[in-house]
Design a protein that fits this description.
Elements: E1 10-12, E2 20-22, E3 26-28, H1 45-56, E4 61-68, H2 85-100, E5 104-110, E6 140-141, E7 155-156, H3 159-179, E8 183-188, H4 193-198, H5 213-216, H6 218-230, E9 237-242, H7 253-266, E10 271-275, H8 293-302, E11 309-312, H9 319-327, E12 333-336, H10 338-342, H11 346-353
Parallel strand pairs: 3-4, 3-12, 4-5, 5-8, 6-7, 8-9, 9-10, 10-11, 11-12
Antiparallel strand pairs: 1-2
Length: 372
């Protein structure tokens, strides 16, 4: 099999300028590390080595984990934030190292909503909401209904609270630019706040943010507009969606495509990553190798003729599997998660497997003795 796809350069468009060119089409998906030391949201040496090792290992772009746009936006008290100068400076250190390895750097900005203030997803820790006396807080969501069994009931965001969330996204995006990030990905997937507003399963509001699809997508459109207004036009803006809720009556692929078309045509979004699920309403998730690729393929077909880049994610773990997805036109790029967590040099090894010449292998120079 040829390597003209996976290890060919990819340019993600932007509203102005040449866009962002990646050395290859492999993107490290954002993966929470639950490794903040002081509960203050500041990146640590762990985040530097975690993200830096994958940049050294040959990936085209590395995406920082879901990063809270304000303190109550974090999934857990040990997650990253981007709302203080100290956090921004620590992010800038990581970005600088990633760039030095020849990779681009992106950040996923998110708000966990009713899924905020939960225990870190680490062995030996309980599940559910962290109480305030243990460093947690009262989460806020689309309604007062918990989105997952065992989670505390959130407070429902009112109009002022929604406006504050939109401002927080914009302020975090401005800090991301100051830290040197090349791209921003807005997190609208996996049952977190924007997804909670998008899905009829969790959004039972009766105001202008609930009911019709137009109303349920309003918050996402407002966030994207606010971020795009402060994010430089020469830099790409992305978004991650859950394409389906895997439950009848939930958010689905048709709704995602309609919203994606609007965001691409009217809001300056040029990169969309298609994931699925995340709400605690699923009946059955059809998990298997590449199980979410079909949704990326449907989205890519729907966006044919636009300047949007579509990345596929979800149990893509083999180099030939990834190459086939691109060669068959199902996506423009591949997001690698758990496989990169297991092996930060996945990209360099994939290049070797696909026949990329040693002198063109994207790994950092000090790793040359690995002889991929």
């Amino acid at each position: 099999m040829g390597t003209q796809h996976l290890f060919s350069p990819l340019t993600i468009a932007s509203p102005s300028g040449p866009g962002l060119t990646l050395r290859n089409r492999l993107i490290v998906a954002p993966m929470c590390q639950y490794s903040v030391d002081d509960l203050g949201g500041v990146p640590t040496d762990w985040h530097l080595q975690h993200l830096g090792s994958m940049a050294a290992g040959g990936f085209g772009m590395v995406v920082t984990e879901a990063t809270g746009v304000e303190p109550r936006a974090r999934i857990s008290p040990r997650d990253l934030g981007l709302y203080t100068d100290e956090q921004q400076d620590a992010h800038a250190r990581i970005v600088s190292f990633i760039h030095a390895q020849g990779a681009a750097s992106a950040i996923q900005l998110g708000h966990a909503g009713a899924k905020a203030s939960t225990y870190p997803g680490l062995p030996g820790l309980p599940e559910g909401t962290v109480p305030p006396q243990e460093g947690g807080w009262i989460p806020r969501g689309a309604t007062t209904e918990p989105v997952r069994d065992g989670y505390d009931a959130p407070e429902a965001l009112d109009g002022g609270g929604i406006a504050a969330v939109v401002r927080a996204f914009a302020e975090a995006a401005a800090r991301a630019d100051a830290a040197g990030y090349d791209a921003v990905q807005i997190h609208a997937a996996h049952g977190y706040l924007l997804h909670q507003f998008l899905s009829p399963l969790t959004n039972t509001r009766t105001d202008e943010y609930g009911g019709s699809e137009e109303n349920r997508t309003r918050l996402t459109r407002e966030v994207v507009a606010a971020v795009r207004a402060v994010w430089p036009d020469e830099k790409p803006l992305g978004i991650r969606f859950s394409a389906v809720d895997w439950t009848p009556g939930g958010w689905g692929i048709e709704s995602m495509i309609r919203l994606a078309r609007t965001l691409v045509s009217d809001y300056g979004v040029t990169w969309i990553d298609a994931s699925t699920g995340g709400l605690d309403k699923s009946e059955f998730i059809e998990v298997g190798p590449g199980y979410q690729v079909r949704f990326a393929a449907a989205l890519r077909e729907a966006l044919e003729g636009t300047n949007a880049t579509v990345s596929a994610v979800g149990l893509i773990e083999d180099a030939f599997q990834a190459e086939t997805i691109l060669a068959s036109g199902q996506a423009d790029a591949i997001s690698i998660g758990r496989a990169a967590l297991r092996n930060p040099h996945w990209a360099a090894q994939a290049a070797a497997r696909l026949g990329v010449a040693s002198e063109e292998n994207p790994r950092s120079i000090p790793l040359w003795r690995a002889r991929w």
